Every structure is written in C-alpha cells, then in structure tokens.
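idk why but the lab printer keeps eating my pages so im just putting this in chat instead. protein + C2E:
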Amino acid sequence: AKATGGGVFSSYHPRMREGLADRLELESDLRAALENGDLRLHYQPTVDLATSQVIGFEALVRWPHPTRGMINPLDFIPIAEATGMIVPLGRWVLHEACRQAVAWAAAGDGPPPKMSVNVSVRQFDRADLSEMVTQVLTDTGMPADRLCLEMTESVLMTDTEANLEQLLRLKALGLTLAIDDFGTGYSSLAYLRRFPVDTLKIDRSFVERLGVIADDTALTDTIVRLGKSLGMATVAEGIEEFGQLAALREMGCGFAQGYYFSRPVPADEAGRLFLEGANV
Ligand code: C2E
Ligand code: CA
Ligand code: CA
Ligand code: CA
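predcted complex ->
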C-alpha cells in the first residue's frame, strides 16, 4: 500500500481491510478478556537433566476465545505489545503465576516451585517494572528467589546503560534473570558478561536440529560451554525426542523443557506434577 496521505486505505485490497477490522475486533476482545479474567495460564515443567526431576515451570498465557477457540499467544501478544495492553496483561500473568506457585507450596510441605515468567521488551522499557514486581511479590507472598524473569536478547542490545540499571534493580530484588530464545538475536558476548544474567535458554531452533545439522550441534555445544564459563545455567527449549535429550546431557546442559517431557498443561495438572515430585 502506498502512503498517499489521507488515502492510505484506498489502495488496500478488501482482504486487508477485513484484516484490519479483524485485528481491531481481536484487540477489543482481548481488552474484555483481560478485564473479565478470561485469560488462563498453562505451565510447562522445567526438568533437571541430571535427575529428570521437575524443578519448576514456565507460565505461558492462554486465551480461550468465546467464538474463535484457543488463540495462540503468538497471535495476541504482538497486539498486546502494540497497544500497550501488555503492561496490565503482563502484570496479571506475573501475579497469577506467583499466586499459583504459592498455592501449590501451601498444599505441600516445601517451598514453591521455581516459576519462570516471560517479560516483554515493552514491559522492560517501563521504569516502574521493578516496583510492579515488588508489589506482586508482596501481594502473593512469593519468595523472590523462586521467581525467574525471562526476556529476549533485545534487552541486551539496545540502550545499554538504562537497560543495565533496570536489570540491576530487578536482580536486587533477589530473583533470577534468564535470556530467552538465546542464540537467535544479536547480543554481544561483552554485554552478556556485563549484565547480571543467571540463565541462558537455548532456542528451540537449535535443539530441533541437534544431531541433524552439524553446525547447530556445534552451536548448542558452544552455548552450553559459554553458559558454564560465565557461571550461568543453561536450559534447552523444545526437546521432543530422546536423541536430543541424550545429546544435551552429553554436552552437560543443566535443564530442559519440551514436549518430550510435557506440553504446557493447565494449573491442576501442573500442580499434581509438582506435588508428586514427578520424574517425567
Ligand atoms: P517462549 O517463551 O519461547 O515459550 C516457548 C514456546 O514453545 C511455548 O509456546 C511452548 O508451548 C512451546 N514449546 C515448548 N516445548 C515445545 C516443544 O517441545 N516443541 C514445540 N514445537 N514447541 C514447544 P506458546 O505457549 O505458544 O508461547 C509462544 C510464545 O508466546 C512464547 O515463546 C513467548 O514468547 C510468548 N508468550 C507466552 N506467554 C507469554 C506471556 O505471559 N507474556 C509474554 N510477554 N509472552 C508470552
Ligand atoms: Ca520463554
Ligand atoms: Ca523461548
Ligand atoms: Ca520462542
């Protein structure tokens, strides 16, 4: 479409106009879902590769839409980010994940599981993020050291001074920080050393081709070594087959997630996994 001032829409194909209306409708539906408490969290176990024990979960948001069925986060998180709705949505996710972890702990006799929550760059860019997190920890009674915030490499790439301060404020709360989808961005190794990051999550695209494409196997191995030499934990994402698991164990990767162990599951099912101290 040409930007012909005022007539921007004139060159749109009807299908695209439909797309826009669709998006606006989705946007108002999402706003309503958030206000009405219709969003849900699913939880995917994180497994200790040495013991196969479930040590924690990643909270993943789900939107059961009244007419469209379950909507994938990849189809509505971008809308939430573009509209700023990600801020209240992200606060809800954090609160619900922490509340749930504390509730599971109360039903058992130990501390809450380690809970990982995704934080979008749009949330990260807000100066009051650490206040928001503090408030949620206080409100839910979640111990800070049970919480991990996952963010993508982009926070290591832009405006480094402000981002460093933000990361230090978060770290000061006592929680852990993970770099999500590691290996897909362009973060420099220098930043990685400078920033207070605890965990690298190796992107599924590498794990997918483990043992199939030599370069990807070498890269995964390099990331695991990098993590080790920087004193960081490594979590491999998206393990689907035993071969991948074996390769990662061989490399000394500490933790993993993936359908091979468990898909993201509703809270009641995740609670059972946690309380049974499941080996998956
Ligand atoms: P992510 O943070 O990289 O989460 C991992 C995604 O991989 C999840 O998709 C998970 O269901 C999927 N996955 C896990 N194991 C496997 C596997 O073995 N095979 C395959 N094929 N996929 C696997 P999901 O739940 O659809 O979430 C997609 C993305 O949406 C997430 O990617 C994350 O970037 C974003 N997202 C989800 N929940 C939230 C949230 O609460 N806040 C924000 N900001 N983003 C979220
Ligand atoms: Ca994640
Ligand atoms: Ca990821
Ligand atoms: Ca991803």
